[in-house]
Amino acid sequence: MSLDRLALNLKGIEHKTEWIQYCDIEKRFKELDIPPSEIRSSGTPAYTIPAIYDSSTNARISDSVKILEYLDSAYPDAPKLLDPGTEVLTTVFAWAVRQNMRRPTWPLAAPNTVISGLDGPSSTKYRGNFEAWAKYDVEEVKRNPVLYDKVWKDAEEGYGTVDGWLKAASKGTTSDEPAAGPWITGKDIKLADIILAADLAWPVAVFGEDSEEWKRIGGWNDGRWREYWGLFKQYAVVH
User: Fold this and answer.
1) How many CB atoms sit inside 10 A of residue 118's CB?
2) 63, 35 contact by CB (below 8 A)
3) Given a cut of 50, is residue 111 above it in pLDDT?
4) Which of 45, 110, 158, 177 could share a disulfide with 104, CB 3.0–4.6 Å?
């Protein structure tokens, strides 16, 4: 679940999803003349979803933060998600959340993704990317109980780190003053909230909302993640 889908639904912008095989992302981007999401340190382009094409302006954009910046600019009557001057801070927050939530969850999610989530060449490519990063094969997590316990522990610690940030952010101008609303900055949803929701949507999609895995993750930190996803799931509809 991309944060851009959550943002489009939150803003009420009509859109249609085009699904792309994992192994065909670069090919399809080039066919549609969509620029790469980033340029690697080696100088080679990286093509990653999500991306959007807006027929009303002929805009073709990849990279989630750039897409959100565009939506705020092109659709000024919809709720704003980025406050001026917060772009760098938001990018850093997105990186930090990814390192503490998505990365440690990847070893848990990879077996389901490879075995039942993707087909043929896409599954093979995904497996290769994961195993190059993890330095062990996809099935090893479930085959090795010591590794299985470790990756769950690492994931819980990562979520706990983010929970600590949110607890600090929930304070007002004094330590006894509560936050003004359920979101990171108060009453209004901002991009930082969507970044968190997108990283929660991923294990929900991979494992299923009724799965023991999601119940375990959602229950961490006094049920914060289950509650947070409950606030956001209305915006996860696929069009």
Assistant:
1) 18
2) no
3) yes
4) 158
